[in-house]
């Protein structure tokens, strides 16, 4: 076997494209794409709206090696249509998750999505349901499905629901996880409920640090491709089934979260209740200091 | 969408051995460029789908300049454009050439 | 049709259903004498963290009982609750958890049937109706990802233009027929026919296979999804053999 090497050039996960993320994540030169751009499997629906298409419909899927082990990989491109799930985009992911079970291989999903693509909303919504089902089936066969979240578009809408079915989630500070986006909440409930232009509010309500502190994500990393790679290697070492024991533990964990924090008005109150010193400083803390401050965080070990 | 097609004589043949390369992303003010080794060595074809209508003359100037100055012979180039400015188009085309010339691993 | 009408039609011998806000949970007896669990979200209410955890708790209790009885999940909801509190508390985890418990129940031998009899949208639809093994609907049900006016705002298209486009394709616009054509809904029940025999027929369906993309292809509402997914599965098998021998 050839020596396992990563691409060591420093690369911001947030700034990188889907293809750059895959190249930096897997062992150098090990990626083989399925249904690549040269096959031009583009959305058949965007033309109805006179919108431009992309050759890979905004998601790159295939197989590579991670520290020598074969893994299936999907990476969403958050800059194309906000990384949203359309028919082809979603079906590529569904197929990859079904292939995981057939080939008995773990999966990495590099999320970067605003959710369902409205121009093909019904197809996108059904794809989300099909992917969630395929993730659970793969996990029930003992496979790991690891989500990596730190892209421009975050992980919103149906993407966040798929994220919730993963066995483990790796997140950076930039990795926002939420069902309804800030603008959607503001549009539906008013600016008094949520001011979408208040970026600090968005980050502390939906951002990676908050999700890590409440147990919504399992590993917190710097906005660096190499940090995501190391975390992904570690994440795949932990087996995580999806059986009644795990889901009962998740039930207990999520009930406890409502009991502990259900009355909180703001994330800072939750961080205070978690025993974080100087909770208002959390957004400004660099990763190492944040991880020390997060010592008493809620975790989701064996409960996701 | 407006579709444009060019078939140009290329003075310089594309280097490297990669069968294909892709650069860029389809977003506002951006574009993706797919390069495939498919044409005769002295020909470069370029097919464009663009969201910005009525810029045929600008595209004509940009792609002719590109083929004249870079090593694009033997390439079939396909572009999905989200309304990029000419300098962005030229940059992506140059990046595409560099990428398809990269040594294979 | 009201919820009471539906329950009476489905279970002529009666049912024991408790109501907690918009959430219902209980048991009934099928005409053939077998027991069935009944869960649901009703009254067109949104699905937030509090409702999701309650429903998931019921599903886990059912799975732990080991009775392998079927579960009927009734749905008349809004979308996910759009609030700061729900997102602050991690709504995505609660909705996923509910979906996972339903998928778990099915995998553990409980047939799961969704019955959409009112509205449902977005995350609430995914976490409930779309997480069941077979989803059926009554006429007048109105599933949506997003309503057309909101869609108009996001896509910056006038509502008339959207409506015209919706005539040409079932792929984006809300509605029962569109969701059925894309394969999300197995069947729309006839409102005038007795409900109990329809449910009995659903109970005879093969279990455990996600055939929604195939249905969508057959009905013409989603022509590409099944073919693309199949190709990926085939490519993964081929490239793996290549990797082993190469």
Automatic annotation (TrEMBL), chain A:
It comes from Bradyrhizobium neotropicale. This is Biotin-independent malonate decarboxylase subunit beta. One of its GO terms (biological process) is malonyl-CoA biosynthetic process. One of its GO terms (molecular function) is transferase activity. One of its GO terms (cellular component) is acetyl-CoA carboxylase complex. Keywords: Transferase. Residues 1-244 form the CoA carboxyltransferase N-terminal domain.
From TrEMBL, chain B:
It comes from the Bacteria. Its main location: cytoplasm. One of its GO terms (cellular component) is cytoplasm. Keywords: Cytoplasm, Phosphoprotein. It is found in: Cytoplasm. The modification O-(phosphoribosyl dephospho-coenzyme A)serine is found at residue 28. The keyword Repeat does not apply. Covalently binds the prosthetic group of malonate decarboxylase. One of its GO terms (molecular function) is acyl carrier activity. InterPro entries: Mal_deCO2ase/Cit_lyase_ACP, Malonate_deCO2ase_dsu. Belongs to the MdcC family. Subunit of malonate decarboxylase, it is an acyl carrier protein to which acetyl and malonyl thioester residues are bound via a 2'-(5''-phosphoribosyl)-3'-dephospho-CoA prosthetic group and turn over during the catalytic mechanism. This is Malonate decarboxylase acyl carrier protein. It comes from Bradyrhizobium neotropicale.
Automatic annotation (TrEMBL), chain C:
GO terms for biological process: carbohydrate metabolic process. Residues 203-223 are annotated as: Disordered. Gene3D superfamilies: 2-enoyl-CoA Hydratase, Chain A, domain 1. Residues 207-216 have a biased composition (Basic and acidic residues). InterPro entries: ClpP/crotonase-like_dom_sf, Malonate_gamma. It holds the Pfam family MdcE. SUPFAM superfamilies: ClpP/crotonase (SSF52096). NCBIfam families: malonate_gamma. This is Biotin-independent malonate decarboxylase subunit gamma. It comes from Bradyrhizobium neotropicale. The lineage of its organism: Bacteria, Pseudomonadati, Pseudomonadota, Alphaproteobacteria, Hyphomicrobiales.
């Amino acid at each position: 076997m050839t020596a396992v090497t990563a691409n060591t050039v420093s690369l911001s996960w947030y700034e990188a494209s889907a293809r750059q993320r895959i190249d930096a994540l897997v062992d150098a030169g090990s990626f083989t794409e399925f249904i690549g751009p040269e096959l031009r499997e583009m959305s058949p629906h965007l033309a109805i709206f006179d919108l431009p298409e992309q050759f890979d419909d905004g998601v790159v899927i295939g197989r590579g090696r991670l520290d020598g082990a074969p893994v299936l990989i999907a990476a969403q491109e958050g800059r194309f249509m906000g990384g949203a799930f359309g028919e082809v985009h979603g079906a590529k992911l569904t197929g990859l998750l079904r292939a995981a079970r057939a080939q008995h291989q773990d999966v990495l999903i590099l999320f970067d999505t605003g959710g369902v693509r409205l121009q093909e909303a019904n197809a996108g919504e059904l794809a989300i349901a099909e992917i969630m089902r395929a993730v659970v089936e793969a996990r029930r066969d003992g496979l790991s499905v690891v989500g990596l979240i730190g892209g421009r578009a975050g992980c919103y809408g149906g993407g966040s629901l798929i994220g919730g079915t993963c066995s483990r989630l790796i997140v950076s500070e930039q990795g926002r996880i939420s069902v309804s986006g800030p603008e959607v909440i503001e549009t539906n409930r008013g600016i008094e409920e949520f001011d979408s232009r208040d970026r600090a509010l968005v980050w502390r309500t939906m951002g990676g640090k908050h999700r890590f502190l409440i147990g919504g994500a399992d590993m917190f990393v710097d906005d660096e491709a190499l940090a995501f790679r190391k975390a992904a290697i570690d994440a795949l070492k932990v087996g995580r089934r999806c059986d009644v024991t795990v889901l009962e533990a998740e039930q207990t964990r999520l009930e406890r979260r409502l009991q502990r924090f259900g009355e909180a008005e703001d994330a800072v109150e939750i961080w205070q209740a978690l025993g974080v010193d100087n909770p208002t400083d959390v957004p400004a803390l660099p990763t190492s200091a944040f991880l020390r401050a997060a010592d008493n965080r809620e975790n989701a070990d064996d409960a996701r | 969408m407006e579709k444009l097609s060019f078939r140009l004589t290329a003075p310089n043949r594309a280097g490297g051995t990669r069968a294909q390369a892709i650069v860029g992303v389809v977003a506002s003010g951006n574009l993706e460029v797919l390069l495939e080794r498919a044409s005769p060595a002295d020909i470069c074809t370029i097919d464009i789908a663009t969201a910005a209508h009525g810029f045929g003359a600008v595209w004509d100037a940009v792609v002719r300049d590109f083929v004249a100055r870079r090593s694009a012979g033997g390439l079939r180039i396909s572009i999905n454009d989200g309304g990029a400015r000419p300098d962005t188009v030229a940059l992506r085309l140059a990046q595409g050439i560099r990428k398809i010339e990269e040594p294979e691993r | 049709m009201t919820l009471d009408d539906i329950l009476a039609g489905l279970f002529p011998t009666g049912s024991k259903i408790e109501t907690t806000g918009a959430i219902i949970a209980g048991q009934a007896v099928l005409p053939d004498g077998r027991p069935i669990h009944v869960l649901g979200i009703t009254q067109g209410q949104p699905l937030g963290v509090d409702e999701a955890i309650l429903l998931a708790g019921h599903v886990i209790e059912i799975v732990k009982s080991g009775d392998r009885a079927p579960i009927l999940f009734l749905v008349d909801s809004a979308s996910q609750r759009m609030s700061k509190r729900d997102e602050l508390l991690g709504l995505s985890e609660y909705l996923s958890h509910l979906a996972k418990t339903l998928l778990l129940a099915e995998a553990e031998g409980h047939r799961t049937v969704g019955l959409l009899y009112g509205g449902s949208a977005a995350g609430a639809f995914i976490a409930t109706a779309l997480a069941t093994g077979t989803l059926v609907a009554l006429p007048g049900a109105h599933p949506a990802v997003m309503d057309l006016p909101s869609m108009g705002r996001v896509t910056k298209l006038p509502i008339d233009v959207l409506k015209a486009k919706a005539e040409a394709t079932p792929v984006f616009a809300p509605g029962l027929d569109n969701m059925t054509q894309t394969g999300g809904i197995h069947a729309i029940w006839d409102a005038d026919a007795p409900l109990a025999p329809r449910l009995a027929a659903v109970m005879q369906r093969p279990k455990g296979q996600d055939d929604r993309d195939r249905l969508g292809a057959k009905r013409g509402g989603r022509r590409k999804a099944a073919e693309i997914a199949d190709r990926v599965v085939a490519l993964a098998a081929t490239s793996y053999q290549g990797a082993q021998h190469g």
